[in-house]
Design goal:
single chain, 540 residues, mainly beta, Immunoglobulin-like, 4 domains, twelve-stranded mixed beta sheet, seven-stranded mixed beta sheet, 50% strand, globular
């Protein structure tokens, strides 16, 4: 366009007009370009963060740090000593630096804008030290020390942690309230049943002096008992884990592993803990899988004493009841081997089950779990008519990868519920869960030959689901019980009385073998729950 205008204005006698037109043409050609430049977005400046990490000798080392945007909790893994492009914002940098057998945890908060830099210098680390006073029985025990630095202030917590591998564990102090610190030390006897200890120390910020000494009088005592008999495992392990803390929830202290039943004491600092009892065994392929266990939360106070008993007989149906949700009857088949002390869920995986639902004497639904299905197996049925429904679930232990221990208790269980249901409702079935707890057994869940055993028959009605209304408890009409000494082939009635407010079956024991149990609770309108446990406890 510019050259065309110049040519058109270059005739004789028009040189001045040509120059004016040429200048105008140049101006008109440049204006759109200038306007475009003014309206286009500016090229964003590049924001980078370089994290330098130095070990305890002052040598630059490369580690993978965790970098957390404190505004939105977005987390990145960033290698140190190299610039990393990041959105502008305030970040927490979490790092763990090894120097031989020594670990140092450090954290920095840094604003990223332009070329930002920060340094985590392990030479500034202070030794983490947790100790006991007046606890001479801790001498000679194996010691585990763990520390964490966490982000604080949002529901999601990011952290970096390390264990003392023998050379010492250090943390770099930092007063930022966006950071938290936790340390745990456990004293354990992995091979025996000597008293164990675990203490926990947490602060906002990373303290200048990460040390704490705990008096034995400030600790709680948890008396732990782990029995044998119903478990499919060859051994069990005991561990503790702090929970519901501002920092340190992911710590884990292993205390012991045993192939025999045991009683031991665990001394804990005040606060919330998970006491974990895992069961594991040798599989046919040579591996050692965990086949089940317990995660028991406890809040403990200084100077108080508590008791936990694991792997007690008799394992039977859990307290999860059938439910009707929006007109659909639902029942999960898989929770048929629950410890009576923790009856909500099965203790160990591995079972087969067949559930049948009847209405008016006719089977209207059957559901099978063939063992180790990819998901929980549930019987579902659309309630079309009001009336009495009878639901039965028969289960047997099934774990083809392992060999069950000889004489294992609770190899089979069954439960039957009879209850009224109607369409278009959302209710927990109006029946009781029935849990059996034989008392006075030894650590191998054995009763004395020829003696008598009291079996507590505990009734409960936990709500089945958030939408399944619980309603009023049915009025109990009768509670009855039977015992079998031949694996369930024949049954004999036994006396049932209330002892200290608990329905209790009084069983006269045989001279050898095992006792199977059957009990029924019937309500005043005709509903009932009937539970059978084969080989509920042993005689020895």
């Amino acid at each position: 366009m510019f050259s065309t205008l110049i040519g058109a204005a270059s005739g004789p006698g028009s040189s001045s007009r040509a120059r004016v037109m040429a200048r105008a043409a140049v101006a008109s050609a440049l204006v759109p370009a200038l306007l475009l430049g003014a309206g286009a977005p500016a090229v964003a400046a590049t924001n980078t963060l370089t994290v330098t990490t130095l070990d305890r000798n002052g040598k630059k080392v490369t580690v993978t740090t965790t970098v957390v945007n404190l505004a939105n909790n977005e987390r990145r893994s960033v290698k140190s000593n190299k610039a990393k492009k990041l959105p502008k914002g305030t970040y927490a940098v979490l790092a763990s630096i090894r120097t031989g057998d020594t670990s140092t945890l450090g954290a920095r908060t840094v604003k990223v804008s332009g070329s930002s830099k920060t340094t985590v210098d392990a030479r500034k680390g202070k030794r983490v030290s947790l100790g006991l006073s007046s606890a001479p029985d801790a001498a000679g025990l194996e010691v585990q020390t763990i520390a964490q630095i966490c982000t604080r202030g949002r529901s999601t917590i990011d952290y970096v942690d390390a264990r003392d591998s023998g050379g010492g564990l250090f943390v770099v102090p930092n007063s930022s309230t966006r950071l938290g610190f936790a340390a745990m030390r456990a004293w354990s006897d992995q091979a025996g049943t000597a008293p164990h200890y675990a203490v926990m120390f947490t602060t906002a910020g990373v303290p200048k002096s990460p040390t704490r000494t705990f008096a034995k009088s400030s600790l709680a005592t948890v008396n732990v008992e782990a029995r044998r008999g119903p478990s499919a495992a060859s051994s069990s392990g005991l561990a503790v884990q702090p929970v519901d803390r501002s920092c340190g929830n992911h710590m884990y202290g292993s205390l012991l592993g045993a192939d025999q039943p045991y009683r031991t004491k665990v001394h804990l600092s005040a606060g919330k803990w998970l006491v974990r009892a895992n069961s594991y065994t040798s599989a046919k392929d040579g591996s050692t899988p965990v086949v089940g266990g317990f995660l028991v939360p406890r809040t403990v106070s200084a100077g108080e004493s508590y008791t936990l008993r694991f792997f007690r007989s008799a394992w039977g149906p859990s307290t999860r009841l059938p439910q009707v949700n929006y007109g659909w009857l639902s029942y999960v088949l898989n929770d048929m081997f629950a410890d009576p002390g923790f009856p909500r869920d099965s203790v160990e995986g591995g079972d087969k089950a067949t559930a049948t639902l009847k209405f008016g004497g006719k089977t209207v639904k059957t559901k099978k779990d063939r063992g180790w299905e990819s998901e929980m197996t549930s019987l579902e049925y659309k309630v079309k008519k009001s009336g009495w429904y009878t639901l039965t679930n028969d289960a047997s232990r099934y774990y083809p990868e392992i060999t069950f221990p000889a004489g294992m208790l609770s190899p089979k269980t069954s439960v039957t519920y009879r209850f009224k249901a109607k369409p278009n409702t959302s209710v927990t079935a109006p029946v009781y869960a029935l849990t059996m707890l034989p008392t006075g057994l030894d650590l191998d869940n054995r009763a004395k030959a020829g003696d008598s055993t009291n079996v507590q028959l505990k009734l409960s009605r936990p709500k089945a689901g958030p939408d399944a209304k619980l309603g009023k408890n049915p009025k109990v009409k009768t509670v009855t019980a039977k015992a079998s000494f031949d694996g369930g082939k024949t049954w004999r009635s036994v006396s049932v009385k209330k002892i200290d407010g608990v329905w209790t079956a009084q069983v006269g024991n045989p001279t050898s073998g095992a006792v199977s149990l059957r009990a029924r609770v019937t309500d005043t309108i005709g509903g009932y729950t009937d539970v059978t446990i084969i080989r509920a406890y042993a005689i020895g």
